[in-house]
Design goal:
By secondary structure, this protein is α/β, with parallel strands linked by helices. The chain contains 9 helices and 10 strands. It is globular. The protein starts with a strand and ends with a helix.
Length: 271
């Protein structure tokens, strides 16, 4: 049996084919998972399996995740260069309607409104002329429906776009520098409180920005302060399989476009 978690970014669109468009890739990958008879489960379920060491089920288990929280995770839209795009949630619903198989995912959202507005306006984030593409108006409705769960992707992603961020670090875009209680609380618990206030307390899993982890977060803050931040599992990035050695506070995810760029490569990873 294999347990894998796949990560996609709905704002990753630089073309109209599999290798350049995560919407095209997600739709194709669902067909691959169906052909391989993989069972898609929510990330909280995978977290429970890792915590309880219930990984030998004889099945191929796959979790799906979406990062950064663009509205493209749930809504169809028209890209200014590459035309109409089916939203991730609708791709999942189309698949379920066609095959009769359940398909769910977790969208990891950034909490800080100020950080999201700055990222929306930043040209290097891809959509500076599209207002509200990192808005939060869709979180509650998504959390109320069975297809998309809402996860915690930190307060501000320690991103370079905002003028200020929650922590004092030597550099931006490096979450490994969040390595003390005050900083971790500002980035993780504060984000959890904000998101849960908007989705009715159902945000229970965390994804490390950039996949950056450190010993303090994985071995101290996340396990020892779980009663404060409310997370039950955390997800990083890495090509290793999920097995008995996996920490529930650093479950690896394979990233579309980084770890695989074709259906054949994905199938090899799931073999």
């Amino acid at each position: 049996m294999t347990v894998r978690v796949l990560a996609y970014h709905s704002h990753n669109i630089s073309g109209s084919d599999y290798a350049t468009n995560d919407h095209v890739a997600l739709a194709a990958d669902l067909e691959t998972l169906h052909r391989l008879d993989a069972r898609i489960v929510c990330l909280e379920t995978i977290g429970t399996m890792v915590r309880e060491r219930r990984l030998d089920t004889g099945e191929r288990i796959v979790g799906l995740s979406f990062d950064d929280g663009p509205v493209f995770d749930v809504e169809d839209f028209t890209h200014e260069r590459f035309g109409p795009q089916r939203g991730f949630a609708n791709i999942l619903r189309d698949f379920s309607a066609r095959t009769g198989r359940e398909a769910c995912a977790t969208s990891f959202v950034i909490a800080s409104p100020e950080a999201r507005r700055a990222m929306e306006r930043a040209p290097d984030c891809g959509y500076p002329d599209r207002a509200g593409w990192l808005g939060e108006h869709w979180w509650k409705a998504a959390a109320d429906a069975p297809t998309i769960a809402i996860g915690n992707h930190s307060w501000d992603h320690v991103h370079h776009a905002p003028a200020t961020i929650a922590v004092s670090v030597q550099e931006r875009d490096n979450f490994t520098l969040v390595r003390d209680y005050v900083s971790a609380d500002a980035e993780i618990r504060r984000a959890s409180d904000y998101i849960n206030a908007r989705v009715g307390g159902r945000c229970r899993v965390f994804a490390f920005p950039f996949g950056h982890v450190n010993r303090f977060l994985v071995e101290e803050y996340l396990p020892e302060r779980a009663g404060e931040h409310g997370m039950v599992a955390a997800f990083g990035v890495g090509a290793q399989v999920v097995d008995a050695s996996t920490s529930v506070w650093n479950i690896p995810r394979l990233v579309c476009g980084e770890h695989w760029r074709s259906p054949r490569q994905l199938e090899a990873l799931l073999a």
